[in-house]
């Protein structure tokens, strides 16, 4: 059967590669010891920080830990879709 | 006799990865190299090491008997008949791990040190009390891992605990590797496992059906000249003994195997 499957079979992604990705994510969470509650708090602080610097958050904030095996550390990748808030003074002058 | 004694705990995150096989095989291989070796089973309640070495019928006293003073240490050590430089200190099978403390195990190992160059400690799986007993006396640790997600994840947790126990060295053995599955992209490669865990690689051991025969007969696989796993364990023992030995090439290159691989039946 495996001989017949050699022909006309679509190349699938190796399952070891999928395992590798999953493991990377699992170890990242494990090493960073971040639970969901703390991640939510972190997200909220990031949104506040954006507000403070004049950005409006216009979509879902995503924080994805990623492991860096060479030195056993974790990188936090934050994806924050923002739009620069229009300056209040500019808006007033535009209305005039 | 003056020598530096090294206590090495062989451990893992999850059970069934091959710790006892590793301890029995490496212990016997070191004894074959002429070293004084004691293999010690700390898996109280579930002992296995005696079976792997074919010594199950010769046990009279065990580790808890020594700790409680029922027997002397020398009485409890079971010497291997063919390789008398190898001794086993068995675990108690009828007791509970809570009856032993890390300090007691450490004291026991200190008593063994003058007589043995290598003390290999077979740790129970997991990270509970038994694990703490097994790592308390250790100078070094060997982590046995299978190339699969649950084993690597649990091992990563164990590395954290071993690091916090201030061990001199933590080495990795990747056990039960199937080169064909790695080649087909269905098993994590040794390199990927090592990258994730970021510790020194001590050895790579292939999956080998002869291991089952060896545990059936009580003759460690290092005595089986045809066994690739046996050769891998022998190499690991030589590395522990301070020799530089290259890793085995697990890719079998015989013509039949190559043909089998072409037709996806190997």
TrEMBL record, chain A:
Domain of life: Bacteria
UniProt protein name: Septum formation topological specificity factor MinE
Automatic annotation (TrEMBL), chain B:
InterPro entries: MinD, MinD_FleN, P-loop_NTPase, ParA/MinD_ATPase, YlxH/NBP35
Spans traversing the lipid bilayer: none
Keywords tagged on the record: ATP-binding, Cell cycle, Cell division, Nucleotide-binding, Septation
Family matches, as SUPFAM superfamilies: P-loop containing nucleoside triphosphate hydrolases
Domain of life: Bacteria
Pfam entry (one): ParA
Keyword ATP-binding appears in the UniProt entry: yes
Physiological role: ATPase required for the correct placement of the division site. Cell division inhibitors MinC and MinD act in concert to form an inhibitor capable of blocking formation of the polar Z ring septums. Rapidly oscillates between the poles of the cell to destabilize FtsZ filaments that have formed before they mature into polar Z rings.
NCBIfam families in alphabetical order: minD_bact
Family note: Belongs to the ParA family. MinD subfamily.
Full protein name: Septum site-determining protein MinD
Species the sequence originates in: Desmospora profundinema
């Amino acid at each position: 059967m495996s001989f017949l499957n050699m022909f006309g079979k679509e190349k699938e992604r190796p399952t070891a590669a999928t395992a590798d990705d999953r493991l990377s994510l699992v170890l990242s969470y494990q090493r960073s010891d971040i639970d969901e509650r703390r991640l939510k708090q972190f997200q909220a602080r990031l949104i506040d920080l954006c507000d403070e610097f004049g950005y409006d958050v216009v979509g879902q904030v995503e924080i994805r830990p990623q492991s860096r095996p060479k030195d056993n550390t974790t990188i936090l990748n934050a994806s924050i879709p923002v739009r620069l808030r229009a300056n209040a003074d500019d808006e007033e002058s535009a209305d005039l | 006799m003056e020598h530096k004694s090294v206590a090495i705990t062989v451990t893992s995150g999850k059970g069934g990865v091959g710790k006892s096989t590793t301890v029995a095989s490496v212990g016997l291989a070191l004894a074959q190299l002429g070293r004084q070796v004691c293999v010690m089973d700390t898996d109280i309640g579930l002992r296995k090491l005696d079976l792997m070495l074919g010594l199950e019928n010769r046990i009279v006293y065990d580790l808890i008997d020594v700790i409680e003073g029922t027997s002397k240490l020398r009485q409890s050590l079971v010497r291997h008949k063919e390789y008398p430089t190898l001794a086993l200190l068995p675990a108690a099978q009828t007791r509970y791990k809570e009856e032993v403390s890390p300090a007691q195990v450490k004291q026991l190992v200190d008593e063994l040190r003058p007589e043995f160059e290598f003390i290999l400690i077979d740790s129970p799986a997991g990270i509970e009390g038994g694990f703490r007993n097994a790592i308390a006396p250790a100078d070094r640790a060997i982590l046995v891992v299978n190339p699969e997600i649950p084993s690597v994840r649990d091992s990563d947790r164990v590395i954290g605990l071993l690091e916090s126990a201030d061990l001199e060295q933590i080495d990795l053995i990747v056990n039960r590797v199937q080169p064909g599955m790695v080649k087909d992209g269905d098993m994590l490669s040794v390199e990927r496992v090592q990258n994730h865990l970021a510790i020194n690689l001590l050895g790579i051991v292939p999956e080998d059906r002869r291991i089952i025969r060896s545990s059936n007969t009580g003759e460690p696989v290092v005595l089986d000249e045809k066994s690739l796993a046996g050769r891998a364990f022998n190499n690991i023992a030589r590395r522990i003994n301070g020799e530089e030995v290259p890793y085995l090439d697990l890719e079998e290159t015989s013509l039949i195997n190559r043909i089998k691989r072409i037709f996806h039946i190997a």
